[in-house]
Design brief:
By secondary structure, the chain is α/β, with parallel strands linked by helices. Helices cover 42% and strands 11% of the residues. The longest helix has 16 residues.
Length: 238
């Protein structure tokens, strides 16, 4: 059943990177630094570089689980191979090390604080615990109880679009799937598994339909909003 105004949810879960944290800005800054360091004066356009990231990340996450730091090291090596330079061992951690500096979107903190007054809030993220901890201060929930749930890929040894994050969230929260609303930017990693599981989901289309670092994918959200502030307007008035 699709979302409609008047539905009552007990919990909202969020993807973090791309939804709450502006990972495209973070990725592009890190890769620009890498290219400059190795003398690449003109890296490809933004869209091409993000598409390369999406491709390399998907390849690195395929198969048996490995920590996200290892995934990002493979992505960084893949970028080096694409541009034809020999990556130093120290620079293999450049992407992972940069995460702690990735910015939150301007509406993230205020929106989460407002939603926290009405719902339990959780994070379902494809990262390691320590990488999430690096951006947690920018999410704005210190002093108001924080998140009620954190499920990372490290904890369950699985990456979305696998289903394990969602099963774990329902189990830990002790709620039924029709009591959960998932909020995310990636159709591939979040909207598609929600479709398969029958969990209602909101697509935060911050990029105007462009796939970006998450890639393109055909999936059907129950609601589309351009940003989190718009989501607050939809949910808090219910």
């Amino acid at each position: 059943m699709p979302y409609h105004v008047g539905m009552k949810f007990k919990a909202l879960t969020f993807d973090c990177f791309g939804t709450l944290i502006d990972w495209e800005t973070g990725i592009l800054r890190a890769l620009a630094m890498l290219c400059e360091r190795y003398g690449i004066d003109e890296p490809p356009p933004r869209g091409e570089l993000l598409a390369l990231y999406a491709q390399l990340e998907a390849q690195a996450e395929h198969g048996e689980y490995r920590p996200y730091r290892d995934v990002l090291a493979d992505v960084t090596k893949g970028v080096a191979a694409r541009f034809g330079f020999q990556l130093s061992l120290a620079d293999q951690t450049l992407l992972a090390d940069s995460i702690k500096g990735w910015p939150a979107f301007n509406d993230t903190a205020n929106s989460l604080r407002e939603l926290k007054q009405h719902y339990k809030l959780g994070i379902l993220s494809n990262v390691d615990d320590d990488l999430f901890e690096g951006v947690l201060p920018r999410l704005g929930l210190q002093g108001v109880g924080g998140f009620d749930l954190l499920v990372t890929a490290q904890q369950i040894e699985s990456y979305k679009p696998g289903r394990a994050h969602f099963h774990e969230a329902l189990n830990r929260l002790g709620i039924k799937k029709d009591e959960l609303l998932h909020v995310a930017q990636s159709k591939k990693h979040d909207v598609a598994p929600c479709n398969e599981l029958g969990i209602r989901c909101v697509w935060v289309d911050r990029q105007g339909g462009r796939g970006g670092a998450s890639g393109e994918y055909d999936a059907r959200p129950d609601m589309v909003v351009p940003d989190l502030a718009s989501l607050v307007g939809e949910l808090v008035s219910v």
